[in-house]
Write a structure and sequence with these properties.
Elements: E1 3-12, E2 20-29, E3 39-46, E4 52-58, E5 62-70, E6 74-80, E7 95-103, H1 109-116, E8 117-123, E9 131-136, E10 152-161, E11 165-173, H2 186-207, H3 216-231, E12 234-238, E13 241-243, E14 251-252, E15 256-260, E16 271-272, H4 273-286, H5 288-299, E17 311-312, H6 315-319, E18 328-330, H7 339-346, H8 352-372, H9 419-439, H10 444-454, H11 456-463, E19 464-465, E20 470-471, E21 474-477, E22 481-486, E23 501-506, E24 511-514, H12 524-527, H13 538-546, H14 585-600, H15 606-631, E25 637-638, E26 645-646, H16 658-663
Parallel strand pairs: 13-18
Antiparallel strand pairs: 1-2, 2-11, 3-10, 4-5, 5-6, 6-11, 7-10, 8-9, 12-15, 13-14, 16-17, 19-20, 21-24, 22-23, 25-26
Domain Glycosyl hydrolase family 63 N-terminal: 4-87
Function: Cleaves the distal alpha 1,2-linked glucose residue from the Glc(3)Man(9)GlcNAc(2) oligosaccharide precursor.
Membrane topology: Single-pass type II membrane protein
Length: 666
């Protein structure tokens, strides 16, 4: 609605508890008429399980400060400074309200505030008409929460003003001695300017985009992509809900902690296993020590069998944001081991003690994949956990693969051979071999497995579909499958019938064969560089990639060929296409990384790979930058027909890999 809200945050180290930090929020209206609408800013301070808070009021209405203590922060003081005009100096008229309530848990704070709102308050700026506004009033408790012990305390400071205006908050640690002065006003502005300049210097030293000739506006775009990802990092704790085949009912996993980046701070504020490997490819370049810590945290989530849950929904606050059908983590379901891509990048400079601590976990993880995801034939692999009710889906999803609704065999069975998982296992064998060698551990079995899985002859025998002219999955498959509307009989005579449902119709019986689904999965032998530079299949794969009727677009490679029957088809009535056409940056990054490799290797396709690389890199960067300038965001995916950003936003997860593409850092 034309509201521009800018939040700035600076930390100043010191003392024994992390030091001081300050926070500035600037608000203004863009293009709005007069008078400007009233704006209320809500500042929450809450304890969760432990810690104390003490409010300090001014004129019985304004929460001026909060003193408190907690295990991690020691003693502290939070101060809410009076709002000012946008220049940060002139005082600004405001109305104040505050709330002091028992907290039923962090995941329910919004409900507490919403149930406390009243419109009985009046904004009375001298010389202007009086205006009513909503503000926090008395809290009377949440429905159904009577008798529940409080989990902590919530204090809320509400500032209501007419934009433009600026509000600053300072946090001062009790253990900081010889404080040079409050980090506010001019001191806060100076600290922000200093950090910004240091960030830009370090960014150029790391990625050299200025030296490569990128204009300032595109450098700012890349800086925003990296800092958005860094800003999304979080520390999470709690228990996952786990369903094991050995138990009838779901059980809470042991208490876990996780320091990780996230795909989207607002929409997906939690860790995803296969996303994280892509995140760490970028962060490993920026701060290797930070990246090593994140990888170690993820490997510490492993259970005794070597399984890591693919989605980390830790604690009630995280669970409150996840649809019920996605809450359960199934202990036979894998996810691509992309963390090994990042570890491979970190390997040359990783300290040996770090690798020595990691290695038993890496070995257990690798053994778990080989034990639980093995396919029907030697050296084949199969993702477990495909949707168990195929009649409800156009093509049952394979969430384990990360590619969710990408078309697989129409009828899930134990006879499936999944091409992408086989390629991931080749990469895993290679990285385990490299780590074992660095540590002086036996590396032979890993190299033997890597050699077998990289054998181009065996790869063709198991996954080359001559009739399709492409690498493919194999399974019990029918290509004559569609969704049709089916009327549902009334529950009882005389009752109105339920709404019609979309159900799957199989017009030709399935049979064991290669799955005709040309797209990202077909490219995996190239994406993970298993194809030799002189492979007779490489020209065909490159031609497929560059074919506009198949995967090529002016914006990047689409996920499923345009001439495929399932291209942009819904999977159910409520399930729009996801990996069935849109452009995804993580796979385009892998394609560029591979093309860069083939363009540098001796082989007959060297020039062709280089030409496709140059064009694809230009298309991807130009479109992501164009969409960013138009919308202000990186997006989850991009339309293959218009290039427009779509899906979730902001999405500074793997879409931020555009920084490495710009830097040509693979």
């Amino acid at each position: 609605g034309g509201l521009f809200l800018k939040t700035e945050f600076v930390k100043r180290p010191g003392g024994e508890h992390g030091g001081d930090w300050s926070w500035r929020v600037t608000a203004r209206m863009e293009g709005a008429g007069s008078p400007a609408p009233l704006l209320s800013l809500f500042f929450y301070i809450a304890t969760d399980g432990q810690g104390t808070l003490e409010p300090h009021l001014e004129n019985k209405l304004r929460l001026a400060a909060v003193t408190g203590t907690s295990e991690e922060l020691g003693d502290f003081t939070l101060t809410f400074l009076h709002p000012t005009a946008e220049n940060g100096e002139d005082p600004k008229y405001a109305s104040y309200n505050y709330l002091d309530a028992a907290s039923p848990g962090l995941h329910r704070l919004t409900e507490v505030v919403r149930s406390s709102l009243s419109n009985r308050f009046v904004f009375a700026l001298p010389g202007k008409p009086r205006r009513r506004f909503f503000a926090v009033d008395a809290f009377r408790g949440l429905p159904g929460a009577a008798g529940e012990p409080p989990r902590g305390r919530l204090l809320l400071h509400q500032v209501t003003l007419e934009p433009p205006g600026t509000v600053e908050v300072t946090f001062e640690s009790g253990s900081v001695a010889d404080r040079p002065g409050r980090l506010a006003g001019g001191a806060l502005s100076a600290a922000l300017a200093q950090h910004t300049a240091a960030f830009k210097r370090r960014f150029e030293e790391t990625f050299e985009l200025g030296r490569k000739g990128f204009p300032t506006s595109q450098q700012h775009f890349a800086q925003a992509a990296l800092s958005d990802m860094l800003g999304g990092m979080g520390y999470f704790h709690g228990r996952s809900l786990v369903q094991s085949p050995l138990q009838e009912h779901p059980v809470p996993a042991p208490e876990a902690v996780l320091f990780t980046a996230v795909p989207s701070r607002s929409f997906f504020p939690r860790g995803f296993l296969w996303d994280e490997g892509f995140h760490q490819l970028l962060l490993a370049r920026w701060d290797p020590a930070l990246s090593r810590e994140v990888i170690a945290h993820w490997l510490d989530l492993m259970n005794a069998e070597g399984w890591i849950p693919r989605e980390q929904i830790l604690g009630e606050e995280a669970r409150a944001k996840v649809p019920p059908e996605f809450l359960l983590q199934h202990s036979e379901t894998a996810n691509p081991p992309t963390l090994l891509l990042a570890l491979q990048r970190l390997l040359p400079d990783s300290p040996l003690p770090y690798l020595r601590r990691l290695f038993p976990r890496l070995r257990a993880w690798y053994d778990w994949y080989n034990r639980t995801q093995a396919g029907p034939l030697p050296l084949t692999f199969r993702w477990r956990g495909r949707d168990p009710h195929p009649e409800r889906f156009l093509n049952p999803k394979t969430l384990a693969s990360g590619l969710d609704d990408y078309p697989r065999a129409s009828h899930p069975s134990s006879e499936e051979r999944h091409l992408d998982l086989r390629c991931w296992m080749a990469l895993a064998s290679r990285v385990l071999g490299e780590v074992a060698e660095r540590l002086g551990e036996p590396a032979g079995p890993y190299w033997e497995m890597e050699q077998a899985l990289s054998d181009n002859g065996l790869l063709e025998q198991l996954h080359w579909a001559q009739e399709l002219g492409a690498f493919a999955d194999y399974g019990n498959h029918s290509s004559a499958v569609g969704l049709r509307w089916q009327r549902v009989a009334p529950a009882a005579p005389g009752r109105p019938p339920p709404d019609p449902q979309l159900v799957r119709e199989v017009r030709e019986a399935p049979r064991p064969r290669f799955v005709g689904a040309l797209g990202y999965v077909s490219l995996f032998p190239l994406l993970l560089q298993l194809l030799r530079p002189d492979s007779p299949r490489l020209p065909t794969v490159l031609a497929t990639m560059r074919n506009e009727r198949q995967l090529w677009t002016p914006f990047g490679l689409r996920s499923l060929a345009r001439d495929n029957p399932l291209y942009m088809q819904r999977n159910t009535q409520h399930d729009p296409p996801y990996w069935r056409g849109p452009i995804w940056v993580n796979i385009n990054y892998l394609a560029l990384r591979a093309l860069h490799g083939y363009a540098s290797a001796d082989g007959p396709q060297r020039e062709q790979a280089a030409a496709i690389y140059r064009e694809l890199r230009h298309n991807l960067v130009a479109n992501l930058y164009r969409q960013y300038t138009e919308s202000g965001f990186l997006w989850e995916q991009y339309s293959d027909s218009t290039g427009r950003g779509q899906g979730c936003h902001p999405f500074a997860g793997w879409s931020a890999l555009v920084v490495l593409v710009m830097a040509e850092d693979y």
